[in-house]
Amino acid sequence: MSVVEIEPLVAMEAFDAGEGATLVWLGQAGFLIRQAGLKIVIDAYLSDSLAEKYRGTRFPHQRMMPVPVKPGDLRDVDWLLCTHAHTDHMDPGTIPALLAANPRARALVPRAEKARAIERGVPENRLTLIDAGESIDLGGVIVTATPAAHEDLRRTTEGYLFLGYVLSGGGVTLWHSGDTIPFPGLAEWLMPFRVDLALLPVNGRDATRAANGVPGNLSLEEAVALADEIGARAMIGHHFGLFEFNTLNPEEGARKLATLTPKVEVRLATVSTTYRVQPLIRPPLSVLLVCRGNICRSPTADGVLRAALPGHRIDSAAIMDWNVGKPPHSETISVAAARGVALETLVARQIRKTDFEEFDLILGMDDLNMEAIRALRPEGGHARIGRLGAYAIPGEETTIIDPWGQERDAFEAVFDQISVACERLAHFARAAQQNIGQGSEEHGFRT
User: Which of 53, 122, 138, 314 has its CA 20 to 30 A from that of 40?
Assistant: First the structure.
């Protein structure tokens, strides 16, 4: 059964909600979404403001496709989401008319772009701000902001300039990545959400565009690889077909897809099409933490996550068999106890091939761990593999240092490092948990 059901769009005003989530592509990176009783517009460019701005220049920004709907004709909109401030995502030709036609609608934008959003037509009293790692309840849909690199991870004192949004509600999880290229840690941030449908840009990037101030995005191949890495069930590629200097030819894209063997169900966005994703029932997220000996780092993470995520399956294991059956290192137990985390009941074990089917996430601590975990992973294993340290700082595959054989202050530093990473991972798992149980048993399966 297809993850994404498609049917012709009869009329934008007759856009049906149904169960789960229903989407319509608005061109470029724009989508109209019905999810958990809300109508959400994201990154809508429904004007010719860029053509007016760049008329007579090398890149005149003339539309290759017509505006699918006038912004004032979109009604009953609850939220307008903008991932960043580039005009084709935060459009001064779209925002005032859309908000005027929907007086109860609010706008969600990156905290770092508050001034730009107000300048583009969002009244301050209708503005909600967010930064990477934060979650907000839109009223039935939980939105969590993820960092994006377009083409770099740029931030101010207020936060990241480029974001993506995870939308969890109605038994469905969507991820609109915003404009981004691959960067370390991006996949790990998405893994806990168990994304049903990823909305990813596929127009790519090159030196010519970069030299002329046109930052790039994922290529189609990179987007497919990312969707597979995070364990998404389906992907829709977008951000093409609008400007001839910054697009992907759909026919060329179809030929490229024919040469790939993705696990994810992949489609390229088309106009006048309704996309529907049915709700699912999922068990709570399960996580296995892995280090070399399972007496220092991984039991620390095990204990911290168990305390933060009651009701989730949390465990830890070793790459090597040196300490099987032993308790954690005495200094590890002492440092954790001083921070209110009990580790005395944990016993070291070695990672097993069955773990790759029994857990959703398997997270290592350093390069050696990751190399060993990947070597052990059976073909087609269920678990997503990543680095625990990636949850600490976006863009850095932070190594969790091994304190074995060092003084107590090294164990304390490791506990602090692990706590920061586990706090964010637990936050994501809790945000995703809000979406569990909203689907029907008919569509339920373990993912």
Answer: 53
